[in-house]
Amino acid sequence: MNTRHPKGLPLSLLGVDHALVAGVLNVTPDSFSDGGKFADIDAAIAHGVELHSQGASFIDVGGESTRPGATRVSEDDEQVRVLEVISGLTAAGVPVSIDTMHASTAVAAVEAGAFMVNDVSGGLADAAMVHAVADLQVPYVIMHWRGHSTEMNDLATYADVVTDVIRELGARVEVALSAGIAQEAIVIDPGLGFAKEADHNWAILNQLTKFKALGYPVLIGASRKRFIGSLLKSNDGLMRPIDQRDGATDAISALAAAAGVWAVRVHDVVGSVDAVRVGSAWRLGRG
Ligand code: PMM
């Protein structure tokens, strides 16, 4: 199996030998970091084009917030939010992935030009998803997930977080394979912040090589998440504000690239583009 890239990547990304940077584009009124800013379609497309020009390998477009406590959106509302943005970016030559838990949105998004489906629920939220992706024959990101945003904070209990997440991810990979998704099309993601407390995330990052060893390309989404905010608390105990977490995000991007991940998913592309170059050169022993 080729663990460098999943099968089905745009040609423009195949020659890249450092970790890829996925730029986050949340077209939602309520995402925790950039939500609300890009609800207007033209502004969203312009932002995606800008992230791509800054060096993002592809743009991950999502229309449903997965922020802890967020309420769900209907498939129709989600598609109204994302489809025009995806076709606009595709027309501008920007590779796009779709961040969705809905099979119908995945299908419509790929029709609109998306090359990959990023499903934070790893197929658990919508049983039709793995079958849809098998038909679409596109790369599929399977993230570790235990439940929707309204309940995930109560599900963060593990005997051993690394062992448990690897086992649960493995079960979702089996479901995807049984549905007919090609092994070469699968990407795995430990799901930082999803039913995980701060130290669960650090334990996972500490053991990234164990995820790599499963043989699938690995994607990491640490950008601006709460566990960074709590690591960098001020002396009086205040969380580091969301808009001041990019330096730490860049550090994680560098270390994740050094550990051999396939891609990092970030809001601030500029810093992570340099960071993954450093991490990948470190890993390869050449620039
Ligand atoms: N995190 C978020 C959304 N989508 N997708 C993947 N594959 N991995 C992640 O860690 C991930 C994701 C939540 O962050 P956001 O609200 O800033 O997009």
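^ pterin-6-yl-methyl-monophosphate complex. The longest strand covers residues 20-26. The chain has a mean pLDDT of 94.
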